[in-house]
Amino acid sequence: MNKHEFTIRYNFNQLSAAIASAPTAYLGRQAAVLIPIIEIDQQLHLVLTQRAMHLRHHPGQISFPGGKVEPNDVNAIHTALREAHEEIGLHAENVEVLGLFPPHKTFTGFEITPVVAFVKQHFELVIDPGEVADCFTVPLRFFIDRDNRHQVFHYRHGKRYHVHFMPFEDRFIWGVTAAIIDLLCRHVTQN
Q1: Residue-wise DSSP of the chain
Q2: pTM
């Protein structure tokens, strides 16, 4: 799938289903993540990070660039772009925002809004070691292949929930990041 086809599918497909959120009765701390899609050798790739091990929330996990909404952030898009710049050096001017997916509530008390965007040009990766241990890309076609997207059931307080996971090479992508990737793939393929 190329950038043009992705854009058409993203814009014209109905959102097949919202992300299965954790059932929480309270309003979580607001956060946003950027789903940066970059073209490498005529193939679309997702840009992902590995969170630093010393972080309080989700240390070492694979994630999208993003973080908590700050008081000066205008909206979720502003938060996602600000965080992507802080974490990996991706400037907002180098990003074409396509849209947002519905917020996802987590068991850890966050309500995360995914922001889907294209990276216009390759950029110099500048990792903030205070937040990010590594940054890498995965071909979107890997995730679009339904055989690479898995889910298991997890029981919490006597209730059953889906947990998404996607092993890629020596990495293990799971939780909300995997759920967002699954939603993105289902949205652009209707599968």
Answers
A1: --HHHHHHHHHHS-----------SSPPEEEEEEEEEEEETTEEEEEEEEE-TT-SSSTT-EE-SEEEPPTT--SHHHHHHHHHHHHH---GGGEEEEEEPPPEE-TTSEEEEEEEEEE-S-------TTTEEEEEEEEHHHHHSGGG-EEEEEEETTEEEEEEEEEETTEEEEHHHHHHHHHHHHHHH--
A2: 0.89
- Gap between the Cα atoms of 177 and 143, Å rounded: 12
The confidence band for 52, taking pLDDT boundaries of 50, 70 and 90, is confident
pLDDT tens digit sequence for 74-116: 999 999 999 999 999 999 999 999 999 988 888 777 889 999 9
Q: Which CATH class is domain 3-140?
A: alpha beta
Is-contact 30 69, C-beta < 8 A?
yes
Q: Would you state the structure tokens that stand for residue 52, as one six-digit string?
A: 């630093």
Tokens of 100: 């947002």
- Residue 11 — very low, low, confident or very high, per pLDDT cuts 50/70/90? confident
* Cα 166 from Cα 12, distance rounded (Å): 26
Phi-psi region of 18 (alpha: psi -120 to 50; beta: other; left: phi over 0): beta
Domain boundaries, the chain: 3-140
Residue 61 near residue 177 (C-beta atoms within 8 A): yes
